[in-house]
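pinging the channel bc i need a second pair of eyes. not urgent but kinda urgent?? the chain im working w is below, pasted from the shared doc
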Amino acid sequence: AASSGSDTNHRKDPIDSGEDLEREAEDLLDGLLERMGYMADFEIVSEDPLAYNIVGDEDFGRLIGRRGENLRSLGYLLNLMVGRRLGHPCRVTLDVAGYRQRRVEHLTELAETFAEEVRENKEPITLETMSAYERRVVHVALADDEEVRTYSIGEGEERRVVISPKA
Protein backbone atom coordinates (compact mmCIF):
# COMPACT_ATOMS: atom_id res chain seq x y z
CA ALA A 1 0.00 0.00 0.00
CA ALA A 2 1.19 3.51 -0.74
CA SER A 3 2.04 5.71 2.21
CA SER A 4 -0.46 8.31 3.38
CA GLY A 5 -0.58 11.49 1.36
CA SER A 6 0.62 9.71 -1.80
CA ASP A 7 -1.25 9.77 -5.04
CA THR A 8 -1.87 6.61 -7.05
CA ASN A 9 1.15 7.26 -9.27
CA HIS A 10 3.57 7.39 -6.33
CA ARG A 11 5.26 4.11 -7.23
CA LYS A 12 6.11 5.28 -10.73
CA ASP A 13 7.77 8.48 -9.54
CA PRO A 14 11.47 8.05 -10.43
CA ILE A 15 12.53 10.16 -7.45
CA ASP A 16 11.06 7.59 -5.06
CA SER A 17 11.94 4.53 -7.14
CA GLY A 18 14.93 3.57 -4.95
CA GLU A 19 12.83 3.39 -1.79
CA ASP A 20 9.97 1.70 -3.62
CA LEU A 21 12.31 -0.82 -5.21
CA GLU A 22 13.81 -1.66 -1.83
CA ARG A 23 10.42 -1.97 -0.12
CA GLU A 24 8.87 -4.11 -2.85
CA ALA A 25 11.96 -6.32 -3.22
CA GLU A 26 12.11 -6.97 0.52
CA ASP A 27 8.39 -7.68 0.77
CA LEU A 28 8.45 -10.12 -2.14
CA LEU A 29 11.73 -11.78 -1.14
CA ASP A 30 10.46 -12.31 2.40
CA GLY A 31 7.27 -13.92 1.04
CA LEU A 32 9.12 -16.11 -1.46
CA LEU A 33 11.56 -17.41 1.15
CA GLU A 34 8.73 -18.12 3.58
CA ARG A 35 6.70 -20.00 0.94
CA MET A 36 9.80 -22.04 0.07
CA GLY A 37 10.13 -23.04 3.72
CA TYR A 38 13.21 -21.00 4.61
CA MET A 39 13.40 -19.17 7.91
CA ALA A 40 16.11 -16.87 6.63
CA ASP A 41 16.95 -13.21 6.83
CA PHE A 42 18.60 -11.04 4.23
CA GLU A 43 20.82 -8.00 4.30
CA ILE A 44 21.44 -5.26 1.77
CA VAL A 45 24.98 -5.50 0.44
CA SER A 46 24.60 -2.74 -2.16
CA GLU A 47 21.99 -0.07 -2.79
CA ASP A 48 23.01 0.86 -6.34
CA PRO A 49 22.52 -1.59 -7.86
CA LEU A 50 20.28 -3.13 -5.21
CA ALA A 51 21.74 -6.43 -3.96
CA TYR A 52 20.77 -8.73 -1.10
CA ASN A 53 22.60 -11.53 0.68
CA ILE A 54 20.31 -14.18 2.19
CA VAL A 55 21.67 -15.35 5.53
CA GLY A 56 20.68 -17.81 8.24
CA ASP A 57 21.48 -21.07 9.96
CA GLU A 58 19.86 -23.24 7.29
CA ASP A 59 21.43 -25.44 4.65
CA PHE A 60 21.02 -23.33 1.55
CA GLY A 61 22.18 -25.98 -0.93
CA ARG A 62 18.70 -26.42 -2.40
CA LEU A 63 18.19 -22.67 -2.64
CA ILE A 64 21.51 -22.21 -4.47
CA GLY A 65 21.13 -25.25 -6.72
CA ARG A 66 23.67 -26.76 -9.08
CA ARG A 67 26.24 -24.06 -9.86
CA GLY A 68 23.77 -21.40 -8.68
CA GLU A 69 20.94 -22.28 -11.08
CA ASN A 70 18.18 -22.07 -8.45
CA LEU A 71 19.60 -18.82 -7.07
CA ARG A 72 19.66 -17.35 -10.58
CA SER A 73 16.05 -18.47 -11.14
CA LEU A 74 14.93 -16.98 -7.83
CA GLY A 75 16.61 -13.69 -8.76
CA TYR A 76 14.91 -13.72 -12.16
CA LEU A 77 11.52 -14.38 -10.57
CA LEU A 78 12.06 -11.64 -7.98
CA ASN A 79 12.99 -9.13 -10.70
CA LEU A 80 9.87 -10.00 -12.71
CA MET A 81 7.60 -9.67 -9.68
CA VAL A 82 9.12 -6.39 -8.47
CA GLY A 83 9.03 -4.98 -12.00
CA ARG A 84 5.38 -5.88 -12.34
CA ARG A 85 4.52 -4.19 -9.02
CA LEU A 86 6.45 -1.04 -9.88
CA GLY A 87 5.41 -0.92 -13.52
CA HIS A 88 8.94 -0.90 -14.97
CA PRO A 89 11.89 -3.29 -15.28
CA CYS A 90 14.06 -3.59 -12.17
CA ARG A 91 17.44 -5.04 -11.30
CA VAL A 92 17.87 -6.74 -7.93
CA THR A 93 20.78 -9.12 -7.36
CA LEU A 94 20.59 -12.01 -4.90
CA ASP A 95 23.33 -13.92 -3.13
CA VAL A 96 23.01 -16.69 -0.55
CA ALA A 97 25.52 -16.86 2.30
CA GLY A 98 28.13 -15.23 0.05
CA TYR A 99 27.86 -17.96 -2.62
CA ARG A 100 28.09 -15.59 -5.61
CA GLN A 101 31.18 -13.89 -4.22
CA ARG A 102 32.87 -17.24 -3.57
CA ARG A 103 31.92 -18.38 -7.10
CA VAL A 104 33.45 -15.21 -8.61
CA GLU A 105 36.66 -15.83 -6.67
CA HIS A 106 36.72 -19.49 -7.76
CA LEU A 107 36.10 -18.64 -11.43
CA THR A 108 38.76 -15.92 -11.35
CA GLU A 109 41.31 -18.36 -9.90
CA LEU A 110 40.27 -20.99 -12.44
CA ALA A 111 40.66 -18.51 -15.30
CA GLU A 112 44.13 -17.50 -14.10
CA THR A 113 45.20 -21.15 -13.69
CA PHE A 114 44.03 -22.07 -17.20
CA ALA A 115 45.57 -18.89 -18.65
CA GLU A 116 48.92 -19.94 -17.21
CA GLU A 117 48.53 -23.36 -18.82
CA VAL A 118 47.68 -21.72 -22.17
CA ARG A 119 50.77 -19.49 -21.89
CA GLU A 120 53.00 -22.50 -21.22
CA ASN A 121 51.55 -24.92 -23.80
CA LYS A 122 50.50 -22.38 -26.47
CA GLU A 123 47.29 -24.40 -26.91
CA PRO A 124 43.71 -23.15 -26.36
CA ILE A 125 41.62 -24.54 -23.51
CA THR A 126 37.83 -24.80 -23.65
CA LEU A 127 36.12 -24.46 -20.27
CA GLU A 128 32.92 -26.18 -19.11
CA THR A 129 29.53 -24.71 -19.97
CA MET A 130 28.73 -21.60 -17.95
CA SER A 131 25.96 -19.07 -17.48
CA ALA A 132 26.33 -15.67 -19.14
CA TYR A 133 27.26 -14.17 -15.77
CA GLU A 134 29.98 -16.77 -15.16
CA ARG A 135 31.39 -16.37 -18.69
CA ARG A 136 31.57 -12.63 -18.11
CA VAL A 137 33.54 -13.20 -14.89
CA VAL A 138 36.13 -15.21 -16.85
CA HIS A 139 36.30 -12.65 -19.69
CA VAL A 140 36.77 -9.79 -17.21
CA ALA A 141 39.38 -11.72 -15.19
CA LEU A 142 41.59 -12.12 -18.27
CA ALA A 143 40.70 -8.93 -20.17
CA ASP A 144 44.02 -7.21 -19.45
CA ASP A 145 46.19 -10.29 -20.01
CA GLU A 146 48.69 -9.53 -22.78
CA GLU A 147 49.34 -13.17 -23.72
CA VAL A 148 45.88 -14.78 -23.83
CA ARG A 149 42.46 -13.88 -25.15
CA THR A 150 39.01 -15.22 -24.35
CA TYR A 151 35.93 -15.76 -26.46
CA SER A 152 32.70 -17.73 -26.17
CA ILE A 153 31.55 -20.58 -28.39
CA GLY A 154 28.38 -22.65 -28.57
CA GLU A 155 24.70 -21.86 -28.35
CA GLY A 156 22.25 -21.42 -25.48
CA GLU A 157 23.04 -23.50 -22.41
CA GLU A 158 26.02 -25.06 -24.22
CA ARG A 159 28.01 -21.80 -24.40
CA ARG A 160 31.51 -22.01 -23.00
CA VAL A 161 34.62 -19.87 -22.81
CA VAL A 162 37.78 -20.59 -24.77
CA ILE A 163 41.09 -19.26 -23.47
CA SER A 164 43.66 -19.13 -26.26
CA PRO A 165 47.09 -17.60 -26.91
CA LYS A 166 47.08 -14.19 -28.56
CA ALA A 167 48.41 -14.35 -32.11
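so The helical segments are 17-35, 61-64, 69-86, 99-121, 132-142. and Residues 1-16 have pLDDT under 50 and may be disordered. — does that match what u expected or am i reading it wrong
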